[in-house]
Amino acid sequence: xxxxxxxxxxxxxxxxxxxxxxxxxxxxxxxxxxxxxxxxxxxxxxxxxxxxxxxxxxxxxxxxxxxxxxxxxxxxxxxxxxxxxxxxxxxxxxxxxxxxxxxxxxxxxxxxxxxxxxxxxxxxxxxxxxxxxxxxxxxxxxxxxxxxxxxxxxxxxxxxxxxxxxxxxxxxxxxxxxxxxxxxxxxxxxxxxxxxxxxxxxxxxxxxxxxxxxxxxxxxxxxxxxxxxxxxxxxxxxxxxxxxxxxxxxxxxxxxxxxxxxxxxxxxxxxxxxxxxxxxxxxxxxxxxxxxxxxxxxxxxxxxxxxxxxxxxxxxxxxxxxxxxxxxxxxxxxxxxxxxxxxxxxxxxxxxxxxxxxxxxxxxxxxxxxxxxxxxxxxxxxxxxxxxxxxxxxxxxxxxxxxxxxxxxxxxxxxxxxxxxxxxxxxxxxxxxxxxxxxxxxxxxxxxxxxxxxxxxxxxxxxxxxxxxxxxxxxxxxxxxxxxxxxxxxxxxxxxxxxxxxxxxxxxxxxxxxxxxxxxxxxxxxxxxxxxxxxxxxxxxxxxxxxxxxxxxxxxxxxxxxxxxxxxxxxxxxxxxxxxxxxxxxxxxxxxxxxxxxxxxxxxxxxxxxx
Length: 611
Hints:
Layout: H1 5-10, H2 43-48, H3 53-60, H4 69-73, E1 85-91, H5 95-104, E2 108-113, E3 116-122, E4 137-140, E5 143-145, H6 158-162, H7 165-172, E6 180-185, H8 204-210, E7 219-222, H9 231-242, E8 247-252, H10 257-269, E9 274-277, E10 279-281, H11 291-301, E11 306-309, E12 317-320, E13 324-329, E14 332-335, E15 347-351, E16 356-363, E17 380-386, E18 404-405, E19 415-421, E20 428-438, E21 445-449, E22 454-455, E23 474-481, E24 499-501, E25 507-510, E26 517-521, E27 523-524, E28 542-543, H12 546-563, H13 569-578, H14 599-608
Parallel strand pairs: 6-8, 6-9, 7-8, 9-11, 11-23, 23-26
Antiparallel strand pairs: 1-3, 1-4, 2-3, 5-10, 12-21, 13-14, 14-20, 15-20, 15-22, 16-19, 16-21, 17-18, 17-20, 24-25, 27-28
């Protein structure tokens, strides 16, 4: 069993160096006094809690401001910025009963998928969660929309032309007729001016009037529960540029993982022939199919191709076996980052001024939230952000500082997450430390950095495409600038992350060919993304990221379906890959997949063999 974290915090102890091997000063962290004490939270509280370290810290704060992130951080993005309603994903063996009890505590927008309950819970109710017997664990529901920078209407995406969809339209008469495309993103027509740099340039009604959305409008199945960026409307504009006769439906991916998964099903039930999304929840499993991946696989089995943005994390991932150092940190053993006889338990990071570090750590144990029977992790790991001297940094939730993650993972999800924001005017050096508190050594641990910063040591540059974009039934979409020659965007997520646990929690090894395909980004929409600017000086903002690439490719799938509606999803994926322009010299690579989609070639093949 683990020595209580809280007792260790109250004492001052320095980790002794190996007497037989004089170590450098930066190899071991310092164990400080009272890092959490001023917040009224002990380490033993964290390990016994049914809520994550981040929620424990938020719940333990007295007089927290709950103000908007812009007021707190001066414009620096914070994944943990919440108002009075905290988005949560909660695990339960009795999810319907848990939903009822959470609704009694004020849960808004509750949704159940499998054993996961999602919704938005009042901040004041967080401290009450530990007393609910049906709750196994709860964490913040943190999502990422994969834009890279925070018919023929007045604006046509240059990406549509780059894929030669105009040729497919004029040469083969392929316009996506009798096809419905389902779109999942943040919001459709619920723009948050404060969070997005000013008033929205257009609304959905104006886009319909200008011809940038279908004349019949867009079927909105569920709008975002809170104002957002209307990224879904921008994606719908791209689909309309590529397949102008297609119908379009929208459902929000916001509201937690369960709501996202349910909305995939709702879009299928509404008659969608193609579905596309640009959202990832940061707590989706790396090495196992989560509930969103299961929902994507389910619609694939119903004959619906599913496209998802690959992500914009490039190769910002560390991956290695857990290496025992024999060195203690708060009663747990430190991971040794250094291969060989020398021991180094700190990984140096540089964080630019005005940027955030956001790291999610996972390891190759089953996720209780997705495994049949609720089987969870056999190991308990913790994650820390330390300063340049190897000292623990005190959390400050009002400033978005969550440098400690010490959840009890035993029989739960193998997941820890930290965030640190640099408010200074110069880059700073930080250190990452990982400890094992109980259980076997993981054969593979992996973290992804979802914000900024770069490791100065032990950078493995591993894959960052994960979650439902890595589902067997889905096609993850990488991004290339629409300009020629084809150039893969440097931020486009690398694939190659294997599935190591099946849905029963048993060990497996399943390599998925992801990303499957590459689509264009950087084209114009009428309004999105205003903060990215107008790099090509057309008078309209440019939409960058795999978020823009995915709807381009989904639009081509709609053209194909309009010509050959009987084709299976796998046949459509294969066709798009076989007719693509290769970006690398390989038939497939883990950065660009099978290549850049060409609408003219794909439609030409099916039109030529149409019965």
